[in-house]
What does this fold into?
Amino acid sequence: MEPAPGPQEKYHLITRNLQEVLGEDKLMAILKERELKIYWGTATTGKPHVAYFVPMSKIADFLKAGCEVTILFADLHAYLDNMKAPWELLELRTRYYENVIKAMLESIGVPLEKLKFVRGTDYQLSKEYTLDVYRLSSVVTQHDAKKAGAEVVKQVEHPLLSGLLYPGLQALDEEYLKVDAQFGGVDQRKIFTFAEKYLPSLGYAKRVHLMNPMVPGLTGSKMSSSEEDSKIDLLDRKEDVKKKLKKAFCEPGNVENNGVLSFIKHVLFPLKSEFVILREEKWGGNKTYTTYEALEKDFAEQVVHPGDLKNSVEVALNKLLDPIREKFNSPELKKLTNAAYPNPSKAKPAEKGTKNSEPEDVIPSRLDIRVGKVISVEKHPDADSLYVEKIDVGEPEPRTVVSGLVQFVPKEQLQDRLVVLLCNLKPQKMRGVESQGMVLCASSVGEPRQVEPLDPPAGCCAGERIYVEGYEGGEPDDELKPKKKVFEKLQADFHISEDCIAQWKQKNFLTKLGRVSCKSLKGGSIS
It folds into this structure.
């Protein structure tokens, strides 16, 4: 039997791979006296995805350090956050979360008997808790409540009062769960500092706060339940995992915003203390890494190829997902999944005497629009008005794209610039060269005609998803069928605003870093 870890070793296990700790001295003082009591909460909203393995991996660390760990299924929070979980689905989604989180923990070898599972509504509707909500609301300013929830609560044009209550409830959870510390992502930091400021005003102790970094999604931005391309669902089939990893942003030598590397660092390494790169003998054969730093160094120096990295992650990830898929293959859990997350595309049948129409299905999320980086530009060998470009969209190989921009944009202005690329048009030959996408541009309305490529926000990564405001969710079509004219129908409502922002029906084109724009063509069209 291994000897129990000492305070210093416990501190290392608890804090490794974290981005920030608030209250380090208090944490060490507690560890010298007794075991730490800590909780992690998750609002029961969208389906958990593979990034949830990051907090699961830390929970395993906490248990190794002897902590008493509580997992909170924050069902009331899910409703308060702009009704992300409708009231009628709240119970179903909470049951789904309970089953899937337990399945995840089992898949990484965490003993469930050492954990305490609690629902928010088990205690948040009590007289004492409700009174504390009122007490807190009498001392918290509107400004502080809004600021605290800015990174977590969904931001909308006309915010609901419930979003202002959210940070206060999360702060009170620390007292009512009787813990020493709360663990969450660094996006929770403002709520954590809010709790440190306001709990003492009710006579309650200030807690320790432990923060994980935000792990980049597969597109290079935050992994999100509402952005299909950025995440792998826990119940995705093996072929879907392969497809999403193949499209993942993983530029050779680039270790910044690399979701594939981040997953290895924050999930696979802490679980196994090693990672094996699988490759054919002619490329050097398999190589085992016992430190993440050595793997990152080899990737940065291009000793490890992105394709081998993705294939190795695919194998390791499927080993984690297999027991979860197996558990959720039962009729009972299949029924629960479908009830908790009904398919929105399954429209209700038309009433007698009416026709079913498809306009509601022609929505911007069906377009696979991404940030692209132009790697090379050449004149088309058989057409003076066309360029042939190689454009990086975060895939293993750049795409070949033919654009009619010769008369409008000098070659040197395209080279190395970021562009907006429509990626799921059916490839078509243009004067003998197959074009695998369309560079979206702003066009002037009058004569002489002017054309400017759309500009993603500075700092975007090649392959990052571009979406229309309010249509962040939904999986784009694999390929737009020409006969359905989905792009053409949507394009009819594309335009450039008076502020030079690209829009669809007055809703902005966005990335995680901001709005897509053009240089000067106010009021123009987009094609």
User: Anything to note?
Assistant: The chain has 16 helices and 23 strands. The chain has a mean pLDDT of 87. The domain at 238-340 is CATH 1.10.240.10 (Tyrosyl-Transfer RNA Synthetase). Residues 306-327 form the longest helix (22 residues).
